[in-house]
Design brief:
With 490 residues, this protein is mainly β. The protein folds into two domains: 335 residues, Tachylectin-2, Chain A; 133 residues, Exo-inulinase, domain 1 (Jelly Rolls), CATH 2.60.120. Helix content is 0%, strand content 52%. It is built from no helices and 37 strands. The strands form eight sheets. A six-stranded antiparallel β-sheet has the order 25-36-27-32-33-34, with no helix packed on it. A six-stranded antiparallel β-sheet has the order 26-35-28-29-30-31, with no helix packed on it. The radius of gyration is 22 Å and the shape is globular. Bound molecules: 2-acetamido-2-deoxy-beta-D-glucopyranose (6 copies). Belongs to the glycosyl hydrolase 32 family. It holds the Pfam family Glyco_hydro_32N. This is Sucrose-6-phosphate hydrolase.
């Protein structure tokens, strides 16, 4: 089904309203105006606004199709404005998809590095992936460069993609995801390759940052590499990791390895194992930036391949997580906290105080921020209820077992991980938004990001038999919808 678009001319603005049903459309998370969204791309800060591009199929919300780059910008990471499609698959090197990539800003120009996918993914294995460059001088119009492709990567085909670029000193660095054949084990393994450049266009292979030994999958997508609190973090989305206990339950994972890196030798020395970054159902293909306030901000696709969520019938598929600030704690764990700008969305305080077991708080417009403080020595059960019990979420802490669980019901509804409060109180922040829930336990050392599809009003119920010492529920204002306004040139 193609979404029908209605264009209405209003003074100097074009307003395009897609045929998108609002029931599951996020109120404050970025989602496509219509069609299909997957990976975040080209996350950047340009002329004092955050820009976020994303894998976009304008033709349908039912299938990923041939990727375009969708585009939005925001001053505060929540009030997003949809912009025209930034890139179409219109060159010989990207006719099979304008695949994922990243951005750097220099001399008031936005440099967009991405992977051109040559053939239709359906024609696999007859495909090639090249790294290419496009430039924008106004933050809207994007020009693909005539020198493309800048990296052919003949020896790394066919899975060679997702360039993430940064600058250190006078050198530019690019980390790329790759899949290679290991002759010793006769298996296909994932790895992250590092390239360097002095001029942003001519690139040379520098090193293999790290590779799978077989336990970490056959392909590493969307690698990112950055310094944080004195260490280096290799963050990536491996494909092919087998489920193990509570871990790796999703089709594909996202996680990180912390280590040390030497810019002289380009060698990365891991000091931790691979750790999953989020424990929910829908968290993939992360991208980070260091913004002007020196925050390392992360955003992920809050969806997963092969889910076929009901929203697809509503004219859109996919959304981004809320932006989170990363830090590294003394145990080399990545800590995630919602960016502070979320506070500017707070409306009325719907409830604040002690809540008895069984208490019910009804949310306004299916959107809320919830802060909970409770005893670390009691079980905790919080229900996020929909009018249909099978579309509700149960959040629980099991004191005996030291486990936190998110159960969204249905097939494969449970995600859990070991965790105990590390302070004298159990702290939990939960963000609900029409068809998603994000949980931040403790200081942000454990998070869950999952989609769920509530019908009717959404209510928070204190389950179990214990009172909750303190619960505060804030309304969150709507900051985004499925329409977009573009100031016309004339
Ligand atoms: C998809 O959209 C493009 C415009 O970007 C259009 O040219 C193309 O024909 C569409 N393809 C399909 C299969 O609808
Ligand atoms: C940007 O693209 C739009 C059409 O998409 C065009 O009208 C406009 O002239 C372009 N602006 C520049 C500066 O190239
Ligand atoms: C990549 O291949 C294209 C087409 O064969 C060629 O024109 C271009 O010079 C090559 N670029 C590099 C960097 O090798
Ligand atoms: C694996 O073996 C093949 C065939 O012998 C060879 O072409 C290839 O270079 C080898 N790969 C590696 C990574 O050594
Ligand atoms: C390597 O694996 C492939 C496919 O899994 C198989 O066809 C081939 O015989 C194997 N080669 C060796 C040397 O074991
Ligand atoms: C409740 O949701 C389930 C799963 O989405 C669905 O199969 C069922 O039909 C729904 N029931 C009602 C009464 O809407």
């Amino acid at each position: 089904m193609l979404p029908t678009k209605v264009f209405i001319f209003i003074l100097i603005c074009y307003r395009a309203t897609a045929d998108v049903n609002d029931r599951y459309y996020p109120r404050y998370h970025l989602a496509p105006p219509y069609g299909w969204m997957n990976d975040p791309n080209g996350f950047s800060e340009y002329r004092n606004e955050y820009h976020l591009f994303y894998q976009f199929n304008p033709n349908s919300s039912l299938v990923p199709g041939i990727a375009h780059w969708g585009h939005a910008k925001s001053k505060d990471l929540f009030r997003w404005e949809h912009l025209p499609i930034a890139m179409y698959p219109d060159q010989w090197y990207d006719k099979g998809g304008v695949f994922s990539g990243s951005a750097i800003v220099e001399n008031d120009k936005l440099y967009l590095y991405y992977t051109g996918n040559v053939n239709n993914p359906d024609q696999y294995p007859d495909h090639q992936q090249h790294q290419v460059l496009a430039i924008s001088t106004n933050g809207i119009n994007v020009t693909k460069q005539v020198i493309n492709p800048i990296i052919n990567g003949t020896e790394y085909q066919p899975d060679f993609r997702d360039p993430k670029v940064w600058k250190y000193g006078k050198t530019y660095y690019m980390v790329l995801g790759n899949s290679f054949h290991d002759n010793d084990t006769n298996s296909t393994l994932g790895r992250a390759l590092l390239y360097t450049s002095k001029d942003k266009t001519q690139w040379n292979f520098a090193s293999i940052l790290d590779e799978s030994d077989g336990s970490l999958g056959y392909m590493w997508e969307c690698p990112d590499f950055f310094e944080l609190d004195g260490r280096f973090v290799l963050l990536f989305s491996p494909q092919g990791i087998q489920p193990s206990g509570y871990k790796y339950r999703n089709l594909y994972q996202t996680g990180y390895i912390v280590g040390n890196f030497d810019y002289k030798t380009n060698m990365f020395t891991p000091i931790t194992e691979f750790v999953e970054l989020d424990h929910g159902h829908d968290f993939y293909a992360t991208q980070t930036i260091l913004d002007k306030a020196k925050r390392r901000i992360l955003i992920a696709w809050m969806d997963m391949w092969d889910q076929n969520y009901v929203e697809a019938e509503d004219g859109f598929t996919g959304q981004m997580t809320m932006p989170r600030v990363l830090s590294l704690d003394k145990n080399n764990r990545l800590i995630q906290r919602p960016v502070k700008e979320i506070a500017s969305l707070r409306g009325r305080t719907r409830f604040s105080g002690r809540a008895r077991a069984g208490a019910v708080i009804r949310l306004r417009d299916k959107a809320a921020e919830i802060h909970i403080k409770s005893s670390p020595n009691n079980d905790l059960d919080i229900l996020i209820e929909s009018s249909n019990a099978s579309n509700s979420v149960l959040i629980s802490y099991n004191y005996q077992r030291g486990l936190v669980t998110l159960n969204r019901g249905g097939k494969d509804g449970v995600r859990r991980t070991k965790w105990r409060p590390e302070s004298d109180k159990l702290h939990l922040k939960a963000y609900i938004d029409a068809s998603s829930i994000e949980l931040f336990f403790g200081n942000g050392e454990v998070t869950f990001s999952s989609r769920f599809f509530p019908t009717g009003a959404v209510k928070v119920r204190i389950g179990g038999s214990n009172d909750v010492e303190s619960i505060t529920v804030f309304d969150l204002q709507r900051t985004i919808d499925a329409s977009y306004e573009i100031e016309s040139e004339d």
